[in-house]
Amino acid sequence: MSTPYSCQWYFKREEIEKTPSIQDGTPFEKELIERAKGCNFIVSVGRSLQLPQLTLATATTFLHRFFMRQSLKDYHYYDIGATCLFVATKVEETLRKLKDLIVVCVQKAQKNDKLLVEEDSKEFKRWRDMILYNEEIVMETICFDLAIEHPYVSLLRFTRELKGSKPLAQTAWAFLNDSLRTTLCVTYRPHIVAAAALYIASKYLDEKLGDPVEGKPWWEVVDASIQDIQDASSQILDQYQQLPVLPQFRLVPKTHSPITESNFYTSKKKLTNVYAN
Asked: Where is pLDDT greater, at 66 or 255?
């Protein structure tokens, strides 16, 4: 790309459709699904290790950047997901023992959280060697560009500026978490993604995004174009229809009852009113 180094990780639509994987024969839709699977793997492993959300966001961003320059034909998304998470724990200073990371990776990959993984087993050694070998490849592929700006900070600032409610911020945060599975982190700058999540949340909750400030519409207040916001919103929403491999959408319920694990989930059907607006 002929863009400055600081902008090298933002790609146009036509570039997203000509990744190394696609040039190797992987259909566009299949690549999106496999990227999403890799991100789901990162989140599943990370939550078991009680890693903070920012570490998971950093790891998924690394994965998306990696596959803008490497092919899924050459690297499995689980392998790169594990490696990106390992690197992210260092970057975000949320280190976990490599042994613990490997054990959870094996369990999640084999879909058995109770699986006993011994350090002297072939599977443990394979994952250990793979992660340590791929670490250098990942670092070189992402050009050792380890500083990640995430949309969460912008989201909280926008909510304050637009006088949004706590449920609005929580719901938008949930949409941001799900946006990690999409290629938005290599398409739009963080404040655009934050604005899109806020826009969807406002539609979902039927909450107005504040009164215009100094005669400006809300999207100008957050320094974004409505076209970019709507496009990013569409990409966030499209995943619930286009990526059948995804788990149920984590979203704050419309009621104002306390958020618990039992009521923190909603089916895709409840997103109908968002699509309609």
From this structure: 66
